[in-house]
């Protein structure tokens, strides 16, 4: 069974993730905020559904990409919660002392957004293959020798917030507790796999090394899942997000959200534009000639 821990109990959440690789967070969101994010994604999902119907194509998984920009509630409320950021950065913060600095400078960088989308699993959609999300960075893992979770071994995490109650029948996320400690070659048995069934307001937070999959939807209703993925600050995010968002959009975001999306840098040498923060470039009026 997937464990449930109160979102605000940060110590217990971190411990559960270290032991299982993922945990269901209770009290992650109000029902009203879930409804708001559902409404933010709905028009984009509906357009895909309508297009499929027009072309007589089977309805599969419909995706609302660009969710970080399209949903103010997700961006500014869910993803800026101090408890969420503390847990996320407990696992994904990178801290180093540069070789050339006599130890007087510490570079400490927090996780950045890698991808964000609503995945709307249509009726009849089959289960995904079990996988580890960090395969996109070609990561592999060696077996943990029984000494428990090694801090620093994960480079990415995922946060899934269901738009409706999820059950085995409608495709609740399948999850293999403890698989974040497994060797790359190990495969789960049927009995290793549990369904992270959630009610609205809960969320599933898991490591990039944890084996999981979207379940099969055997019901007649779709199952929307708002999905957010993070990586370490020095990695290439999964989505080429900066090509999507306009200057006007980014200017409306909070500074914290801009930072999370990589527009404000903790590490002054990685990702700069004209030796300044990318957000400064976004704020400049191109027509001014600068
Ligand atoms: Fe995945």
Automatic annotation (TrEMBL):
Transmembrane segments: none annotated. SUPFAM superfamilies: Clavaminate synthase-like. PANTHER family: PHYTANOYL-COA DIOXYGENASE FAMILY PROTEIN (AFU_ORTHOLOGUE AFUA_2G03330). This is Phytanoyl-CoA dioxygenase family protein.
